[in-house]
Design brief:
There is one protein chain. The chain has 154 residues and is α+β, with helices and mostly antiparallel strands. The protein contains three helices and eleven strands; from the N terminus they run E-E-H-E-E-E-E-H-E-E-E-E-E-H. Strand 8 and strand 9 form a beta hairpin. The longest helix has 10 residues. The chain is globular and about 45 Å long. The N terminus is likely disordered.
Length: 154
């Protein structure tokens, strides 16, 4: 679809939440979602800091350069957010980069959230201590298929 020349960076710090529903509350302000292949990794802004420390300022590095899907349609965004409903937040930190990164932007174009999807049913969000499971992986797979998005792109 499009290449990103200057990627917005999400920085964050603070205590993690074990509440799977917090993701949905945070995504509620989204006005746009962009999907890229390749997932993301989290780094400490200061490489001498402990990335696992709640007080460390961190940033999310999205690995894919090409946006393979995007939506601004409110109903479509709502369907995507519903498809990302999660349960069972764990402290398991997957060392892979994931299959997809979904970046969420507010109405001003500011990056507000990034979600990493490990297909077929894993999901990670920087505010959780680890991985969670999708409530209904079929909803996300249907949304991706409706937008012609697969692990290999279009």
């Amino acid at each position: 679809m499009t290449k990103k020349n200057e990627r917005a960076v999400l920085e964050f710090s603070g205590a993690s939440t074990w509440d799977a529903d917090e993701l949905g509350l945070s995504l509620a302000r989204a006005a746009r979602a962009d999907v890229t292949l390749g997932g993301y990794l989290i780094y400490a802004c200061d490489p001498t800091d402990d990335v696992l420390d709640d007080h460390t300022l961190k940033y999310v590095k999205v690995l894919g350069a090409e946006v393979v899907g995007s939506t601004r349609d409110p109903a479509d965004l709502a369907a995507l957010m519903d498809a990302l409903a999660a349960r069972d937040v764990t402290d398991f930190l997957c060392m892979c980069t994931g299959d997809l990164a979904i970046e969420f932007f507010d109405a001003t174009g500011t990056l507000t959230d990034v979600v990493r999807v490990d297909l077929p049913s894993g999901i990670e969000w920087p505010r959780w201590p680890g991985r969670a499971s999708l409530v209904d992986a079929g909803k996300l797979h249907a949304w991706l298929q409706a937008h012609s998005i697969s692990r290999s792109g279009h």
